[in-house]
Amino acid sequence: MTDVKDAAILDNRTAISKLDPNGALASAESLADQINQVWQERQQIKFAENEIKSIANIVVAGMGGSALGADVVWHLFKDQLTVPMYINRDYQLPNFVDHNTLVILSSYSGDTEEILSCAKLAEEKKAKIAVISSGGKLADIAKNNNYPSFFINAKHNPSQQPRMAIGYSILAFICVLSAANLLDFQEKQLLEIIDVVNQVTDKVKIEIDQANNQAKLLAYLSLERRPILVGAEFLEGALHTACNQFNENAKIYADYKIIPEINHHLLEGLNFPKSNSLNHFFIFFQSQLYHPRNQKRIELTQKLLEKKDIDSIMVNLESDNKITQVFELITLTTFANLYLAFLEKINPCPIPSVDWFKEQLKK
Fold first, then answer.
1. Environment class of residue 180 by beta-carbon count within 10 Å: exposed (0-12), middle (13-18) or buried (19+)?
2. In the chain, which end has fewer C-beta atoms inside a 10 angstrom radius, N or C?
3. What is the widest separation between alpha-carbon atoms in the chain?
4. Do residues 68 and 241 make contact, with C-beta atoms less than 8 angstroms apart?
5. pLDDT tens string 12-60
């Protein structure tokens, strides 16, 4: 475990820069710029009027960080979308995909093999196709076929890691759905998001001391333990995003759980192994925008953990609406998982295990 004397690294930009030569922290600090850039460039997405009218369902093909934006958007706007939406993380597309399906192909690199497979299948099924990518083979396919597309010019993601392009990903999905008349998103909402992201960033940046910095606190509490992120409803996609970043940035086994589902089984699964009290650390995200019963469930679940001597912390989200709370959570946890990487003295950007796996697949 990191020695307490080493904790001062989180107050030292110079020391962090040596651990972070690829700029993961700079990407985190640029989240608001990513969001604003997509909004300013949204006009590049163009659908034909006849295509829009006949959309009966949406299938998003994406993997890893390239699917996170869709996951956030689905859970955030599922009470507004008038057609079903399915996130497909595989080589195959669902059988129901047809000429009335909007298939959104998402790959940050543009070369993700599962998504290229789905692109071919979507064409065979004569689906309506849209693309979100920064380049690669997928961008070539989109340009050659004149598909409605958002091409990411990731000038505010110096790390060039898909998981750190979450601002691009979320807003690109919102803008694609808006361009297809499937979602109503206004500039007022954009400005609210940017304001909250900037506020949270100011509260958790390096210059804020450890005693007053919630992201640094979460990093310390997650050291040498398995963080379990718990929330509900519209925050599910944001929790998934946070968990992925903990996995890839901090190289830690993290997981997320959803209320009320876990109250029906996981509570009994906390008894064994006996090491649970040493190895697990639960982070609850409470929101006054949850259903009242889910708010009570969050509180009772934390009380049960106390009875089982399992450590936890409650994070109360403070912004005014669902979409700003999503970005409040993402901003806070992004800094937390990067700080955890720095406490462990590791560069958060390289993903050698994933890279090794991809290389083995090519053989």
1. buried
2. C
3. 64
4. yes
5. 999 999 999 999 999 999 999 999 999 999 999 999 888 888 999 999 9
